[in-house]
Amino acid sequence: MTRSGVLVVRHTSPEVLAAATAGRLLSAVADAQAARGIAHVSLTGGTIGGKTLAAVASSPARDAVDWTRVHLWWSDERFLPAGDPERNATQAADALLDALPLDPSTVHLPPASDGADGDDLDAAAARYAAELLAFGEGAEVPAFDVLLLGMGPDGHVASLFPHHPGLARDDSSVVGVRESPKPPPLRVSFTFGAIARARQVWLVASGAEKAAAVARGVAAGDVAETPAAGVFGTERTLWLVDEAAAADL
Ligand SMILES: O=C(O)[C@H](O)[C@@H](O)[C@H](O)[C@H](O)COP(=O)(O)O
Question: What does the alpha-carbon distance between residue 14 and residue 206 come to, in Å, rounded to a whole number?
Fold first, then answer.
């Protein structure tokens, strides 16, 4: 795996981290649109991911972006019925998306457990992989301009958990994950291969309980132990952390 342009940026508090990440995201999307007309952004679930989206919602700079030309994806999703409050997409809608003038055809919601494939997790994962392929311009997935990732205290990113069978899968861009250690147990997740297509990968981590995993991830240690150690963008990889999460660096 190539390590390209890895940088750690520390912020003084979770609030500053969320606000700065929101500002950075708006600039990166505006830059992508200036260069290529459209932007592909992959969102994340989790606490700091949600705070970042809320900070985008309240930023005056949010109008710097043409939201009708932003493709939104999710690197992982909880396999629950559409609209379930535990779904990452539902939380993103509440925090930000409902307030934006989005074109529904560019909001690529991950499959829900009451969708076209019913509760067939593997079919749902394959459906999302097919949608990514359709926008990949010859590759399996789009070259995401920004792919945001929260990280668990165990070092998981998306729904790629330490020592979990989903980690080793490289036969598809999206996998169905069973027996997730973090509830709910069923999820769909990008694989490492899908994440590696992103131009920029941003890992966002807040709080002392993340400090040990941040240190292992930044050191690019054992990926099976710390999945966050194995994600890189083709152009840039940013670790965006608050002081508490940076404590072991
Ligand atoms: O579905 C999920 O649970 C998330 O996608 C997951 O990967 C999350 O981003 C991390 O667990 C960090 O979450 P916190 O910021 O809440 O710790």
Answer: 6
pTM exceeds cut of 0.90: yes
Task: Look at ligand 1, atom 5, and give the residue with the nearest C-alpha.
Answer: 45
**Nearest atom of ligand 1 to the alpha carbon of 88:** 1
Strand order in the sheet with 200-205: 6-11, 236-242, 200-205, 146-150, 39-43, 70-74
Q: What is the domain count for the chain?
A: 1
Question: Can the peptide bond before residue 110 be classed as cis, meaning omega within 30 degrees of 0?
Answer: no
Q: What are the pocket residues of ligand 1 if the criterion is a CB atom closer than 6 Å to any ligand atom?
A: 44-49, 76, 78, 88, 150-152, 156-158, 182
**Pick from 25, 97, 102, 12: nearest CA to 61:** 25
- Domain-embedded: residue 64: yes
How many CA atoms does the CB half-sphere of 58 hold within 13 Å? 11
Closest ligand 1 atom to Cα of 78: 1
The ligand 1 atom at the shortest distance from the C-alpha of residue 75 is 5
Query: Whole-angstrom Cα distance, residue 194 to residue 181?
Result: 22
Domain with 209 in it: what CATH number?
3.40.50.1360
Closest C-alpha to ligand 1, atom 17: 152
Give mean pLDDT in consecutive 10-residue pieces for the chain, a chain of 249 residues: 77 98 98 98 96 97 97 98 98 98 97 97 98 98 98 98 92 96 97 98 98 97 96 97 98
**Ligand 1 centroid distance, CA of 117 (Å):** 25
